[in-house]
Amino acid sequence: MENIYNYYYWLIGFSIFFVIWERLFPLEKRPFWRREWYVDVFYIVFHSRLFGELLALLFVLVPALNLGRQFDEWVLDHDLHEVLYRNWVSGLSFWPQFGLAVLVLDLCKYLIHNTLHRVPWLWEFHKVHHSIVDLDWIGNWRFHWFEAIFYNSLLVLPVILFGFNPYALFWYGIVGTFVGHFAHANVRFRLGPLKYVFNSPEMHIWHHIHPDHGPINRNFGIVLSLWDWMFQTAYLPHRKAERLGFAAMEQFPRSLWKQMLIPVTTLFSRFRRAGKSI
Question: Confidence class of residue 32 from pLDDT cuts 50, 70 and 90?
Fold first, then answer.
């Protein structure tokens, strides 16, 4: 029974499932070893396993960098524990908690994702995800490590306010992984009326559309597409998405290590130019 709560078993199972699905029913036929496959293999291994271990090691070596610990100490020092830890849903059973976790956390992720596109310096980090040329399930994991920190830092507040059960959070993570794989997958599949509720490949590919081939800043939903339809950021035309990416995509590095560094070097260059102009 313990294995059911091992996230890595679910991740491996989902990955195998989508590899097979994309081979059997692809939206576009591609070679098995498509362009930059090794880059995305690194990203999935790094974000699902190595990044957490590196952070844990860093927190041991430099405790001041452990923002979670610093936050807990700040809450205690300012006597804010009862103010922040409201435990609004802690008395509910699993299913209501799980349903609320999907709604609350997914709305927060929708807003965070929208912010990544609207704020120029955050967009420099999010560009890494939009550098995908051939969208498929593993592209779900191509994102800069700073983006993971940004998301998780902002999600701390709703988690502690609502007091979600760890099991509800775990299963929300499992659902999020499956839908993330699915939304990026190169598969021929339509959700029908459920497209107004759940994210899917037919919607998410338009989130990645190149500005020369469609409107940008659409379809921010993570698990649920519901927010896009509610806040009028949905876009789902009846035509093929011709090209993915962003303006000046040709100048963006394809190298893994350069993708990790370019948001930092770009912002540093901008700050230097801004400083010289003052």
Answer: confident
Instruction: For tokens 């659902």, name the residue.
Output: 175
DSSP state of 66: -
**CA of residue 23 relative to chain centroid, distance:** 24
CA distances for 179 relative to 14, 156, 175, 234, angstroms: 10, 22, 6, 17
Report the C-alpha gap between 197 and 174 in whole angstroms: 18
pTM confidence score: 0.90
Residue 261 to residues 44, 60, 86, 115, 278: CA-CA distances in angstroms?
18, 25, 40, 21, 26
* Residue 80, amino acid: L
Reduced to 3 states (helix: H, G, I; strand: E, B; else coil), residue 6 is coil
The ranges assigned to domains in the chain are: 2-277
Calpha distance 114→233 (Å, rounded)? 10
CA dihedral of residues 47, 17, 106, 90 (deg, nearest 10): -90
